[in-house]
Each structure stands twice: as structure tokens, then as C-alpha cells.
Amino acid sequence: MYRFVRSILFLLNPERAHYFSVTLIKVVQKIPFLNILINAKPDHPILRKRILGLDFSNPIGLAAGFDKDAQCFENMGKLGFGFVEIGTVTPQPQVGNPKPRLFRLKYDQAIVNRMGFNNDGVMNVASRLSIRNKSSNLIIGGNIGKNKWTPNEKANEDYLKVFNELYDHVDYFAVNVSSPNTENLRDLQDKGPLLNLLSALKKRNVELGSPKPILLKIAPDLSNEQLDDIIEISLTLPLDGIIATNTTISRNNLSASPEVIQRLGAGGLSGKPLNSRSTAVIRYLHDRLGDALPIIGVGGIHTIEDALEKLDAGASLIQLYTGFIYEGPSLIAAIKQALVKREQ
Fold first, then answer.
1. 105 with 139: CB under 8 angstroms?
2. 151-179 pLDDT tens trace
């Protein structure tokens, strides 16, 4: 069924297809008898996990970037996700980069995006989250960033602004300094600026009285030396976890011609071609961290095997995005079934 729907969606440009698919999900979930076609069954108890001091009904989440503005997180929960990460959210609304800025590489099962943190701003997002269903067991993460016009020297102010406004509405925070689509943002991954930013967030977290887990989302393009710096910072502060990984600026593992790749231009690559590098980063981190910090594994999960590989490499939880676009809600159910079978 989803393959047919996908064939229709893929006739539209990717950004329009995204908004249409979200609308379609919302409509179908409101129609009796039709909603059973896409809504997930209750999770098997064996899938429950307590990570980050939070109780997840299952370990499969929706990565940031899909629900940037907290418009459909509860709908995605009904599809079977155990947690949804909204954002990236910035202090002020911003339109993002010029269109077109989202591209499919269908034969590679990949997406290139240079969205540029387009979002409605933290006040609008916080307002939507304020009416979330508190009785739901869906965990909500807040992925936070800075406005593109804010210089890195003042980045802390932006991150703290978003942190303060979302504090009462999310269950954990993901600090995004690894998107390739905001100029110079990745410079904040350098040891000095990163330690400064995370220390400021940690301090504010304690001041607010009931600390929320703070995780760092990192790029897959970091060297081992840079990963070692991340590990040192994460243990020193300490952080609560690491999300590995964001999209890549690499164009390795693509079957698309150099001409096609050049025509698409800059942006972060996600999907199947990122799978092996993301897993390698997870394994490198876990080999050195052990169980000291949980890792959320994301990048190129398109099959049951991809999901199990991430978990076996050391991820405590996993997130989908591009794999969900290509494979649909059935991928969530298939991974759950495999996990239940493996644990029984």
C-alpha cells in the first residue's frame, strides 16, 4: 500500500510532498476504519526501555527535521514511534535557505537537504507543545539551534533562549551544532566553543530546578581526534548522551553521476549512503564510552538489519527519517517485530 502512496508522493517536489504526506496522515487518522490501516498497535512490553531517566514505550524515534514546528508529533506517535524529536528550533522564526532546497536521489535511497533551520520560532513551537496530550507515553525531544544571523560569538544566547522556552514542554534536549546548512555552525563543534556552550546549558539546566537530559548531536564527518574531544567533553561535564549522527557533507557511496551530484549542490546527505559511516561513529563512541553515556543512533536505517546493526554497535535508541520516507510506517512495525522476536 505504501509503495503506491509513495509513487504518488514522489511525483511532487520533495518539500511539497512532505507537507502533503503530513496532511494525509492527519486526515486518515481521523477517519474510522481507515485509521487502522496506519495506526500502530500498542507496543509489546518487552520493547520498553528506561534511558536518560525516561520511559520509552519502544526504542524507535523520529529524527529531528521531519516535525520542525511541532505540528504533527502526536500523529507520528500514533504511527508507532516511541519518541519524536521536534525542531531544529531557533529563537526567532526564519524562512531557511532559498528553494529548491530538498532533493531525492531515488536510486541511492537518499535525500540531500539544505533547508537551513526553517521554522516558526520558539514561541510558536512552545505554544503548540503546551497543549500536548500529557497522558500520552510519547517522549518528546527538543532539537535546538541558533538563528543564521547570530554570530557564533553570541550563539550561547540563542541556544539558552530556546532552552528556556522549551524547558517545560519537552522531555530532553538535543543540541544541534552539526547541521551543514547554517554557515559556520559546525565551528561550534570545536572543543573550546562546544565546551563553553554546553557548560552554559548545563548551568541553566540546574538553575531551572528539575534538570532535563541534554544530548549533543554530532556530524558523521568528524575525525577520530574530534570524536575524542567530544568524548572528553561529554564525560567531563558530563552530558547525558550523544546523537550520532547528523547528515553528511560527503558524497561517497552514491551511484548518481558526478554531473547529477554537482547539479544538486551543497547540503546534508541522509539515507542509505550514510549508514556505514554512522554505524562506524556509533561503534567508535561506544568502544570508548562503554555504558557511561547512551547513544541515539541515526543515519541510513532502511531495513531491520540496519536497525539491529546500529543497536549492536552500541546505540541504546535509534531514529528514522529518510528510511521512513522511503519505506513508510511498515518499517517501524517490522523493526519492532524483530526486536520482540530477538528478546523473547
1. no
2. 999 999 999 999 999 999 999 999 999 99
